[in-house]
Design a protein that fits this description.
The protein has helices spanning about 25-35, 45-55, 65-75, 85-95, 100-110, 205-215, 260-270, 275-285, and strands spanning about 60-65, 115-125, 125-140, 140-145, 150-155, 165, 170-175, 180-190, 195-200, 225-230, 235-240, 245-250, 250-255. The chain is of the alpha+beta class. Helix 1 (about 25-35) packs across helix 4 (about 85-95), helix 1 packs across helix 5 (about 100-110) and helix 3 packs across helix 8. The strands form 2 sheets. It has an 8-stranded antiparallel beta sheet, with helices on both faces. Strands 1-10-11-12-13 form a 5-stranded antiparallel beta sheet. The chain contains 8 helices and 13 strands.
Length: about 290
């Protein structure tokens, strides 16, 4: 490999193309509705548009309540939540989605804005292809976009050396493997210990393959418990079933909630009471009190 190809930040062509997906008229309209609301236009500087889009994604909570309730309403058919459905439900019920639906909407926006973007999958400790994000190319620079992991700013990647990044509530180290064939995303703790969170695979995923894995996600373990993960008013709030974790200014507090407290916290984050109740009913005994 030449010295030029080893330079940090360069987009290596063999790592995958930035192909646009096929979008329906309704999918484009839904994405354009949010772009207009967020003040993002085609004429903007591409990096500025990317940055503003990611920042604005913080208004869409990471949650699986809407996925669980929608799955039940469709007689458990594995039907992905399209951009029109996600946008409509957000305005009606304050919901967002999981990484799969959020980054798919993000890809729609990038295609509208003519910003090179490819969706990629990542392996986590509990399975392969269980997280999705995007790689965005502007000029000769490759950026990580991952609103599903609460990264609401473009992270400039290097193919030759680790990149440190602070989300505001945690410190990440993004380390390239084999000059960018993969990127390992880890949490860096104050004692110097690194904990691997996911291993991103750089080659892009076709739209058809993405939809296949998305449909398979309805069989994932996460469909058996409630998750809400959001940055809200200066706090990182993470909910799994009856357990709450709040982080502010580097200090974390954990608490087991009663059903009433859980509803208060979830609806306080903007998710409607009916969606919460439907998700609890759908989970039944799977929403564990222990």
């Amino acid at each position: 490999m030449s010295d030029l190809m080893k330079q940090p930040g360069l987009i290596l062509p063999e790592r995958g193309a930035f192909n646009k997906y096929r979008w329906s008229h309704d999918e484009l309209l839904a994405a354009e509705k949010l772009l207009s609301l967020w003040g993002i236009t085609r004429g903007m500087d591409k990096y500025e548009a990317l940055s503003l889009a990611l920042k604005s994604f913080s208004s869409l909570p990471f949650e699986n309540l809407s996925k669980i309730t929608r799955h039940r309403k469709l007689d458990f058919a594995p039907v992905p939540c399209s951009p029109p459905a996600l946008v409509r439900q957000h305005f009606e019920s304050g919901t967002g989605g999981t990484c799969l639906s959020l980054i798919y909407l993000f890809k729609t926006m990038m295609d509208i804005l003519d910003i090179p973007c490819r969706l990629v999958f990542a392996d986590r400790h509990y399975g392969s292809d269980t997280h999705s994000a995007a790689l965005v190319g502007i000029g000769d620079t490759l950026y990580l976009a991952d609103p599903g992991y609460l990264i609401f700013h473009p992270v400039k990647l290097s193919h030759s050396e680790p990149v440190n990044w602070s989300t505001g509530f945690s410190r990440l180290v993004i380390s390239p493997v084999d000059y960018g064939k993969q990127f390992i995303v880890s949490t860096l703790y104050n004692n110097g210990y690194n904990k691997e969170r996911y291993r991103l695979k750089s080659p892009g995923v076709s739209q058809d393959d993405y939809l296949v894995i998305w449909k398979n996600s309805y069989n994932w373990q996460m469909m058996n418990y409630m998750i809400v993960n959001r940055l809200y008013e200066g706090e990182h709030i993470y909910i799994r079933d009856m357990h709450l974790q709040r982080t502010r200014n580097g200090k974390t507090v954990q608490k087991k909630l009663s059903p009433a407290e859980l509803e208060d916290v979830v609806t306080g984050l903007g998710i409607s009471g009916p969606v919460f109740k439907e998700a609890r009913a759908a989970l039944g005994k799977e929403l564990r009190d222990a």
